[in-house]
Each structure stands twice: as C-alpha cells, then as structure tokens.
Amino acid sequence: MNRIRAILKNKLLRTILVILIIIATLVVFTNYLFTHPEVITLLLSLPPAVLMLLAIAYIGTIVANAYVLSVSLKMIGKKVHFAENVSLTGYSSVVNFFGPLQSGPGFRAAYLKKRHGVSLRSFLYATVVFYGFFAVINTLILLIALLLRPINSLLVTSMALAATIAVLAALMAYKKNARARELLRSVKLTSAYFWLIGAGALFLSLCTAGAYYIELIYVDPTVNALQAVVYAAAANLALFVSLTPGAIGFRESFLVLSQQLHQIPTNVILSASIIDRAFYVIFLLLLFVVLLLFGARTKLLRSSHSS
Predict the structure, then answer these.
(1) How many angstroms separate the CA atoms of 202 and 134, rounded?
(2) Structural domain includes residue 12
(3) 300 located within any domain
(4) Over the stretch 192-228, which tens digit does the pLDDT of each residue have?
(5) Is the pLDDT of residue 190 over 60?
(6) pTM of the model
C-alpha cells in the first residue's frame, strides 16, 4: 500500500501510469471491434439521421448523469466544476461498460476521494439517493403499465413475489446494517438538492427512453412512444441486478420477461438491442477520444497561463 502511494505521489510515475491506463483502454476497444466486426458493418448500414439522433440521446444521458453528480456533490457540501463532472461521467461510463460488476460508481468514488476529498460515506449517501429515485421512477412506470394492460396471472404472481422478496430483503438489510439506517435518517426531504437529484434521474430516464425509441422505430415503425418508455423502464431496472459489462444478457432477459407490459415482439427487442450495443461501443470510443483531447487542451491552456 505504501509503495502504491509513493508511485502516485511521483509525478513521472503517475504520468506513466495514466498513459498505460489510456493504452489499455484503447486496446480493449480495439480488441472488441476486431472480435465483433459486425459492429462496424451494422453502424455503416444505419441512416445518418438515426446515428445523429442516437448521438444526441446518448449525449443527453451523459449530461443528465453529470448534472446528477454535480447536484449530489453540492448536497454533500462539495462544489466541482460542471466540465469536470462531465469528464468524470464520461470516463466512468467507459469503465462501467467494460469493467466488471458495473464498476463506474466505484471509479467515481475513488476519483472524488483522491481529487476533492469526498468521503466514501458522503458519496455513498448521494449515490443511494440517486439510485433510489431512479429505481422508484422506473418501477412506477412498470406498475402503471401493469395496471393499464391485461396481464396473465402468472406474470402478476411473479411480479408480486419479486416485489415481496425485494421488500423483505430491504427490511433485513435495514435491520442488520447500521450504516444503512444512518444514511436513511440523514435524508433531508426539505433540501432542494435532494429533489433536483430526482429531477436528474427523471431526465436520465427520458433520455434512455428516447435512445431506445429511436432504435425501436427503426426496426419496427409501429412501436409508439409509450411502449418505448415502458421498454426503457424494464431495461433500466436490469442495471440493478446485472453482473456483466453493460448488462449484456440481463437487459435482454428483462425486456423479454416484461414483454406483456411493453408488447414489443422478441425479434424487435433483439434487433434493437444489437443496434444499441453496436452504437454505444462506438459512442464510448469517440467519447473517450474527445475526453483525452479535452484533457490535453486543458493542460495546454493551464501551462500557457502559468508561463
């Protein structure tokens, strides 16, 4: 541990470490594209208008996440420039997709602790608030869809059983975990930042629904916006239980299981998912390159001002 701290304090070694991380990330991207050549082929077949709309939707998700991060930090008494929040969100999106077990939040926590002295407890509190809002928003969408559509008894029973298990698990965790109880007691419902995080979670949900809607209507023009919203809610909730990079497999399973809620055929789900995976990988690659160029430009500006 002391050796690692010594390396981080050494400017030259720290620079070499950053370069190695960048190279490793580019290698991961390159390897992915070489082993999945169909990604490039598929994207080249998409109309430019579809690509542009998807880019706008996914940029919206980055802005939404950066906004949530910015408000979350203000809620716990830390102010970080919004441009830095955007950069951190972009890098953590790359880590979250290619890293194990949805490791983006851990990356953000480590960065904020090192760079801005944000305690892990404070970051955990802000993260729990955001995920709570995100889960509630998307769960409500599915519940409303459940009430509006004729659903067979098996699905209703399954959802009721899953909800019961989730509630019991939450109660057990609350009873056994003193930190969880402390975090919940410290929630300030009168705080404007608390509700602004909720607004950010809603905006994020709408941006993801927009991206999925674009993909779905490209595959099947008969899909409507309400179906896409329910579809997106199921896909978003899959993130909470996924163990694979980008929730691969888990998201598709959730979408098929919730098929009676959004009423989108299986072949459309699979085709839209392939488009989404292909586009998102290239989007992350371009985002990573832009962030690198932005970081280099920022350093040049700082050096020119200091000289």
Answers:
(1) 7
(2) no
(3) yes
(4) 888 999 999 999 999 999 999 999 998 889 999 999 9
(5) yes
(6) 0.74
